[in-house]
């Protein structure tokens, strides 16, 4: 009996040893053929234990911002903290405390403080994190460490212990860090000077990297007064001081309105920062009435008009307008014959579109006008006075918004051309049509990587839902190469709800005065509605793209077209439900017509597309499937020859591991 079993076992092993190579030879090419269509190439390194680097840190912050959890403004301190504490994980101080150098006392406070209960509930709902089970060893995952750091900083504020100084007060932030956060004392890296030096290095590396054509439209009416108008000038001065100025960098223009609007200088008036800063501080205070309409009229007719220095947005240039006013307009524009609402509509009808931020100062502002002027309600800011500290805080938040989160709106069937230097990034977003969208990216020179996300406005190498890469670091392209990706809106998770607000305390570092309170919006992805006439039905879902240059010279062309513009053979796809680690696709409804069943995100190279469309790929696919079936039957027959009964096993698909693009199966 025993010899018989051993004989059958040997025969079975022999058959399996013969069949397995054939299975591998069949299934591996089949997987390689199908993998571009399955679209499971998402990556989230913020959940990888021990992941390091600036992209990881920035991805953590982007995820926190996109969650719409109302932490308030940290004045760039969270980003600076990771660099100062651990050099984003590069220095020897990186340990179990993670990238933010978390201490056990920080974690204990975050896990147990009653004052943080509402935020803990919100985080559990958004990310599935139960703080009762989190230990110091979990903080090797960057997202966990970043959340603990942000929660602890928020606790310091709401408990009345301390408030984070403004970003411009680097010395104040250094003192805050050393007093309330940093634990080690006595080393070279345990001083305020060290903090300031590290922040200077970081700001040099990660300053404002977008190209702006930005116009400031400033209220110079009599209700402001000469003293407060000096604060308005200072707002623009400090904003511009953080930009690189030049025809290939950022350009600035200024309009002041009172009885009428006046163009102080156009976008192409100055190519030198010192000249612009001097001109801003010398703007005369006009006094008079509040003719907001004529200020906007001048913006439409002269600000971004041809011949006045505005650059085409197809060259990856943002067009921005920042309007600051303290009251309700009280007359129409005689030049344009518009009232304020009509003038605001004219601004929004400009093509290429302009992102408009509206800042209302004091309670005298007209809410209807302010919301009409801004691109959307998310672009409106209210501040209660011209207090120097509040103006500075507002200026910093707008610089961060424009430089770190704003994305260029792109319309379907509009071609976007760009030239990138090495490590330069330009960001776009498309509002996804009901029929879906096909993204087509072509490059002719260089090494270009396109990261895509459905949840954060600035995807990067550490966090994305899909990626398209052309060339490599060692093999740049010098011939035109194109790739396509179809996105089905039915397989993208619902967008996040509108953000909450919470009182954000501020204080004056130089005087140590008591905190004052102003209401600010929680950070959020910047979604700019398209201003082009609607030609297709749109969903409320958005795809964000970061296009990154990898070589010294990089040229690319981006185009988005409605629907699946490059039809492919219908292939059953794997769909993965949304998880806390990555937003992924949802199951396809059974009512969906077969023609719209392609995976939510699918990639094809032109060569593969041509081969499949010609029919050869379809025949090859049939052959692969037949061979797979034959091999499977052979193996099943061998196994059935065993006297041992084999039960059917079922498996369910699990979310892909955080540091790979692989989906794992678990036996049920």
From TrEMBL:
Protein name per the record? Transmembrane cell adhesion receptor mua-3
According to its UniProt entry, this protein's organism is Geodia barretti (Barrett's horny sponge)
Q: In what ranges is there compositional bias, type Low complexity?
A: 509-528
What segments bear the compositional bias annotation Basic and acidic residues?
Answer: 480-493
Domain VWFA stretches: 213-402
What SMART domains would the database entry show?
VWA
Give the keywords, sorted: Membrane, Receptor, Transmembrane, Transmembrane helix
Report residue spans for region: Disordered: 475-528
Instruction: List membrane-spanning regions.
Output: 12-34, 608-639
Write down the superkingdom of origin: Eukaryota
Task: Show the Pfam families listed in the entry.
Answer: VWA
């Amino acid at each position: 009996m025993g010899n018989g079993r051993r004989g059958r076992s040997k025969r079975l092993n022999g058959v399996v040893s013969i069949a397995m190579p054939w299975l591998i030879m069949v299934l591996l090419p089949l997987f390689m053929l199908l993998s571009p269509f399955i679209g499971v190439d998402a990556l989230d390194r913020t959940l990888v234990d021990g992941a390091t680097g600036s992209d990881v840190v920035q991805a953590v912050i982007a995820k926190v911002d996109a969650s719409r959890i109302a932490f308030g403004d940290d004045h760039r301190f969270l980003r600076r903290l990771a660099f100062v504490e651990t050099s984003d994980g590069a220095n020897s101080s990186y340990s179990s405390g993670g990238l933010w150098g978390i201490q056990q006392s920080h974690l204990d406070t975050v896990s147990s403080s009653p004052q943080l209960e509402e935020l803990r509930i919100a985080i559990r709902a958004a990310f599935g994190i139960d703080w009762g089970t989190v230990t110091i060893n979990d903080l090797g995952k960057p997202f966990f460490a970043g959340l603990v750091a942000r929660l602890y900083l928020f606790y310091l504020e709401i408990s009345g212990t301390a408030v984070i100084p403004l970003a411009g007060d680097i010395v104040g932030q250094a003192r805050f860090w050393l007093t309330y956060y940093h634990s080690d004392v006595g080393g070279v890296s345990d001083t305020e000077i060290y903090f300031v030096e590290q922040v200077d290095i970081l700001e040099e590396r990660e300053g404002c990297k977008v190209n702006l054509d930005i116009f400031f439209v400033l209220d110079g009416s009599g209700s402001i007064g000469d003293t407060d108008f000096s604060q308005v000038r200072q707002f623009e001065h400090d904003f511009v001081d953080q930009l690189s100025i030049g025809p290939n960098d950022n350009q600035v223009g200024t309009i002041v309105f009172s009885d009428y609007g006046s163009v102080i200088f156009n976008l192409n008036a100055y190519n030198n920062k010192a000249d612009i800063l001097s001109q801003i501080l010398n703007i005369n205070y006009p006094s008079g009435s509040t003719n907001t309409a004529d200020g906007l009229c001048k913006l439409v007719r002269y600000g971004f008009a041809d011949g006045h220095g505005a650059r085409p947005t197809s060259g990856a240039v943002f067009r921005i307008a920042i309007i600051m006013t303290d009251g309700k307009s009280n007359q129409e524009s005689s030049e344009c014959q518009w009232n304020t609402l009509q003038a605001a509509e004219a601004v929004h009808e400009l093509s290429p579109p302009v992102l408009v931020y509206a800042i209302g100062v004091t309670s005298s502002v007209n809410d209807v006008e302010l919301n009409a002027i801004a691109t959307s309600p998310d672009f409106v800011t209210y501040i209660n006075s011209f207090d120097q500290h509040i103006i500075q805080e507002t200026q910093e938040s707008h610089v961060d918004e424009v430089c770190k989160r704003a994305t260029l709106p792109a319309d379907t069937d509009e071609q976007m051309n760009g030239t990138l230097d090495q490590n330069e990034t330009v960001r776009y977003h498309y509002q996804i049509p009901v029929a879906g969208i096909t993204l087509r990216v072509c490059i002719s020179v260089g090494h270009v990587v396109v990261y895509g996300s459905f949840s954060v406005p600035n995807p990067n190498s550490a966090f994305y839902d899909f990626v398209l890469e052309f060339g490599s670091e060692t093999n740049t392209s010098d011939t035109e190469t194109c790739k396509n990706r179809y996105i089905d809106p039915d397989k993208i998770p619902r967008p996040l709800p509108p953000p909450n607000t919470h009182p954000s305390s501020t204080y004056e570092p130089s005087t140590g005065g008591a905190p004052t309170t102003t209401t600010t919006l929680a950070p959020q992805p910047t979604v700019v509605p398209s201003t082009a006439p609607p030609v297709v039905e749109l969903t409320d879902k958005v795809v964000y793209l970061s296009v990154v240059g990898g070589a010294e010279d990089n040229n690319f062309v981006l185009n988005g077209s409605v629907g699946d513009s490059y039809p492919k053979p219908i292939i059953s796809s794997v769909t993965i439900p949304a998880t806390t680690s990555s937003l992924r696709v949802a199951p396809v409804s059974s009512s969906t017509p077969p023609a719209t069943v392609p995976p939510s995100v699918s990639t094809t190279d032109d060569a593969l597309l041509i081969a499949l469309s010609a029919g050869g790929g379809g025949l090859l696919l049939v052959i692969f499937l037949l061979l797979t079936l034959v091999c499977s039957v052979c193996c099943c027959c061998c196994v059935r020859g065993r006297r041992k009964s084999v039960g059917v096993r079922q498996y369910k698909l699990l979310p892909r591991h955080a540091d790979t693009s692989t989906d794992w199966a678990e036996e049920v």
